[in-house]
Write a structure and sequence with these properties.
Helix content: 40-55%
Order of helices and strands: HHEEHHEHHHEEHEEHEEEEHHHHHHH
Number of strands: 11
Length: about 400
């Protein structure tokens, strides 16, 4: 605990919390107000932390939609509690991190989802054509506090720190003005939860290592790569039993033993092409992408094309940063073409009907008959946009600054 409240550690924690921003907790304090709060109250907070008396405030419940429907429940701590959790994280992570399995990639410094996918790709290239795809049912909501604290007590001998971590686990959750107690779970939203999750699941990782399995785990998603369906069924039975000892359950509807190409992992799927194992964007990820682009490029009045492109670019840069590593080059080109057609249809709508469309198309060099047929066509904007590829070309979109996926 003395390391947690050390001055240099606190300055690093404050800097990180400010950089992460985030929503206010139950007390309404923003991260911009945190520095002034700490200047006024830190001596008291420090004394309570060192004496083992500090009591975290409840977390604020926040629900975000899942891609396949339903919601994911987050627990947003107060800015002060995020600061303290970050300070604890910076002390514990250097102790725990070197002992974690090299097969674990989620929420770890210097590791990413792309690293996990590359490792999976390597295992499949070695001839492991079946995957044991394990999804834990509501993992962050089901973590057993006694199990987790019992394992932490084997590694930490500071009872003040252990007591504080338990109080963070048990801090109530505020929703609709009512605080409910929590007896299990480590709510997503605080800096400490990912480290605690990795600490708990590392126990199973080590057993998979001892058995010589080729596997990849990212947070609560674990994929074990095997050479046959029968071998996969044996591994699945082992994992079901092993996770049960941690009071965790498999989501049977999402877990399966199946050929690799039929399952997705972190938004990608793996497939063979000419003897090579490649990364492809999953159907679900493609569908979510198109739904979001449709929403941004919806043909409504009052939005200029540059403002639509700016909003679209923000999304495209993020999507490309993650899925741009796909080896489906033709897919990215096809998505680029589809986006440009969406924007051509939007531009037609902005030009309104009749003579205005005709004049705009004639200015761009379109023949009279073609321009008039597009202007007067009873067809929808999408159908008419197909004829604009030559007159609203790639260079025009480049002049608008539209991000390309296929580069």
């Amino acid at each position: 605990m003395e390391e947690v409240v050390q001055r240099g550690n606190l300055f690093r924690a404050l800097k990180r919390v400010k950089a992460n921003k985030g929503s206010p907790g139950v007390d309404g304090m923003t991260v911009d107000q945190l520095s002034a709060h700490l200047r006024a109250h830190w001596p008291r907070l420090r004394e309570e932390l060192l004496d083992g008396r500090y009591q975290p405030q409840p977390v604020r419940r926040c629900e975000i939609p899942k891609p396949k429907g339903g919601t994911r429940q987050l627990g947003i701590p107060t800015a002060a509690d995020r600061f303290i959790q970050q300070a604890i994280l910076q002390v514990l992570q250097p102790r725990f991190e070197p002992t974690f399995s090299p097969h674990s990639y989620g929420f770890r410094p210097g590791r990413s989802a792309h690293d996990a996918i590359t490792a999976a790709q390597r295992y499949v290239a070695e001839g492991r054509e079946f995957v044991v795809d394990v999804d834990l049912e509501k993992f962050f909501d089901r973590v057993n506090h006694d199990v987790l604290m019992g394992r932490l007590a084997r590694r930490l001998d500071d009872k003040r720190l252990l007591g504080l971590i338990r109080r963070y686990l048990e801090a109530g959750m505020l929703a609709n003005g009512v605080v409910t107690e929590r007896h299990e779970g480590t709510p997503q939203g605080g800096p400490l939860s990912p480290l605690l999750a990795n600490f708990l699941l590392d126990e199973v990782d080590k057993e998979l290592e001892q058995r010589g399995h080729a596997f990849v785990r990212y947070a609560d998603d674990c994929n074990v790569y095997v050479r046959s369906q029968r071998a996969g069924e044996r591994v699945m039975a082992f994992l079901r039993e092993r996770y049960a000892k941690l009071h965790l359950r498999l989501n049977e509807s999402k877990s399966a033993v199946a050929p690799v190409q039929t399952r997705k992992f972190l938004g990608y799927y793996l497939y063979r092409w000419g003897g090579e194992v490649r990364r492809g964007v999953s159907v679900e990820a493609q569908r979510a992408f198109k739904d979001r682009v449709r929403q941004i490029t919806r043909r409504v009045v009052g939005r200029s094309l540059p403002s639509v492109v700016n909003e679209l670019n923000t999304y495209l840069r993020g999507w490309k940063g993650y899925f741009g590593r796909t080896q489906q080059v033709k897919l990215l080109g096809a998505l680029d073409g589809w986006i440009r057609r969406r924007l051509r249809a939007l531009q037609l709508k902005h030009w309104s009907r009749g003579p205005t469309i005709y004049r705009k198309l004639r200015i761009r060099g379109m023949q009279r008959d073609t321009a008039w047929s597009i202007a007067c066509s009873p067809g929808g904007w999408w159908r008419r946009s197909l004829q604009l590829a030559r007159h609203l070309p790639l260079a025009w979109f480049d002049s608008l600054g539209l991000v390309r996926l296929a580069t």
